[in-house]
Amino acid sequence: MQKALFVCIFFVNICVAQKADFNNINFSKADGIAKSYQSKNLLNLNEITFNITKDLETDVEKLRSIYVWICNNIANDFGLYTKNKRKRKRFKEDSIRLHEWNSEFKTLLFKRLLNRKKTICTGYAYLLKEMCSIVGIEAKIVNGFGRTSTVDFTTLTEANHSWNVVKINEKWYLCDPTWATGISFPEEGKFYFQFNEGYFLTTPQLFFKNHFPIEKEHSLLKNKTPTLQEFIEMPLLYGEAYNFLETHLYPTKMHQEIKQNDVFTFEYQLKKDIKVDDLKLVISSGSNERTVQPEINLQDKKLAITYQFKNRGFYDVHLYHQQKIIATYTFEISK
């Protein structure tokens, strides 16, 4: 009964800012302009912004062109990110040296952004804000905690990510140009552009699963914003989840404790219809990994995946779509 109540409450509150507000807009023109416009550097940002927006009529199309241009032209500077992380850890107990490094880092950050078109999340969020301002669109930088599979919240002492809120038609929307841009392979020193559509005007309930803002009003969830501890305990979603999930309904926590032979149901609201055969549930015990055959129910873009956990133990449970990982949960199965 409690679970059903949660689902009902959720659907009452889902009518908030999201890309679906602009289903009547065809973004192909904005995308085409953004992808075709080239610039060696960002020294004339006014000119770049003017050229990629001048033939677009609505603010949301202009935002889209700016966003797509950034995501197709600004590479992730993982080396700079690593250097900043190392320096901040080194000077953690030395406020003077830390202040000096922060000043030096800002100079280095904007120099690399302007001249080399490489940056980290702060630079992406700053660039989107500035380009929006040039065309009269209000945007803000949001600082907070970004949650990925590699983030250890037990050691995290300060905000580790930045993104944006943007105002269109008197309504605020969320977007993350950093995570939408591509994939970094730090061990290889390489970055690959790979646009992720899902981080553009994302539903706040879904966006929050990986983004906890320091200023809670920037969650766009109003008085429904979960606490940091609740955020840390949420299921772990990956980039691919944002491409086809409208939101993640159940479970609300990553870790589950259930009894042997209990039946458990995962629930999702989809953006679009998918093929059931493209879904895969994988259970891993660390030394052993196996694909299982759950019961899958897909109706009106509502997806329910039901599985009976017969074996005791501690397991990682992964959901895949078209061989790409969507979400991870942990299960402790007791007698």
Key terms for this structure?
single chain; 18 strands; disordered N terminus; alpha+beta; six-stranded mixed beta sheet
Explain the layout of strands and helices.
Blueprint: H1 2-13, H2 28-36, H3 45-53, H4 59-73, E1 75-76, H5 78-90, H6 95-116, E2 118-119, H7 121-134, E3 139-146, E4 161-168, E5 171-175, H8 177-181, E6 182-185, E7 190-193, H9 204-207, E8 211-213, H10 228-232, E9 236-237, H11 241-244, E10 245-250, E11 255-259, E12 262-270, E13 279-284, E14 289-292, E15 295-299, E16 302-309, E17 313-321, E18 324-334
Parallel strand pairs: 1-2, 11-18
Antiparallel strand pairs: 3-4, 3-8, 4-5, 6-7, 9-18, 10-12, 12-16, 13-14, 13-17, 15-16, 17-18
Helix pairs in contact: 2-4, 4-7, 5-6
- Oligomeric assembly: single chain
Pattern of helices and strands? HHHHEHHEHEEEHEEHEHEHEEEEEEEEE
Question: Beta fraction of the residues?
Answer: 25-35%
Put simply, the count of helices is: 11
Structural class: alpha+beta
State the end-to-end distance.
Answer: 24 Å
How many strands, what sense, and barrel or not for the largest sheet?
A: 6 strands, mixed
Number of strands: 18
Task: Describe what this molecule looks like in 3D.
It is a single chain. With 335 residues, the chain is an alpha+beta fold. Helix content is 33%, strand content 30%. It is built from 11 helices and 18 strands. It has helices spanning 2-13, 28-36, 45-53, 59-73, 78-90, 95-116, 121-134, 177-181, 204-207, 228-232, 241-244, and strands at 75-76, 118-119, 139-146, 161-168, 171-175, 182-185, 190-193, 211-213, 236-237, 245-250, 255-259, 262-270, 279-284, 289-292, 295-299, 302-309, 313-321, 324-334. Strands 9, 11, 13, 14, 17 and 18 form a 6-stranded mixed sheet that branches. A 4-stranded antiparallel sheet has the order 5-4-3-8. Strand 13 and strand 14 form a beta hairpin. Helix 4 packs antiparallel against helix 7 (121-134). The chain is globular and about 65 Å long. The two termini are 24 Å apart. The model is unreliable at 1-15 (pLDDT under 50).
